[in-house]
Amino acid sequence: VTDLVAAPDPSDPATLLMTINGQGVRQGDMDVLMQLNFGPKFSSLSKDEQDTVRINRESDTRSQMIDRVLLVTAAKADGIKASDEEVLGELAKVSSQLPPELTLKSYLEGIGLTLAQFRAYAGDQVLINKLSEKRTSDIPKPLATEIETYYKQNPEYFSKKERAQVSHVLISTENSLTDEQRAQKRAEAEVARRRL
Fold first, then answer.
1. What are the DSSP E strand ranges found in the chain?
2. I want to staple 111 with a disulfide (CB 3.0 to 4.6 A). Which of 35, 121, 130, 157 is the partner?
3. pTM for the predicted model, two decimal places
């Protein structure tokens, strides 16, 4: 007889998703990163829409989370610390980049984060920035001729890919759909519209 174990509940913030160098990453950690990436729009989505976004962006968010954990771990291993003043500076920097009608408090409420969660994120960002500065400070700045040569030798990095302009998003429906199925189709269409 085999015991069947239920799949982890992705809506439970306590669900352990992965372990990186002994550090557990939970669904709540991924949700914080998703909310920061999408801003207030994410919190305004319905639960079904949020789940669709999570599924579509799961791989990118997971990669970003792995990078953050590894960089913060490396910073701490290098003895780098984030002072309260530096964290407050990071919070002030974010506040200064918000539209005039938003305060940091209202922004965080809009994306469903507490100040404590955002302070932790800002502290990690200070560590990452300091690690980057430490590891790159001895790299000489390139000469103008080196930049020009690189630009000419690598045009694929400096060109824009063609983009399509979409005027209509059509989601297939049939007359025999239930009200619930129609609502799901509307939610899918709204998610697609917001991505444009």
1. 16-20, 23-26
2. 35
3. 0.65
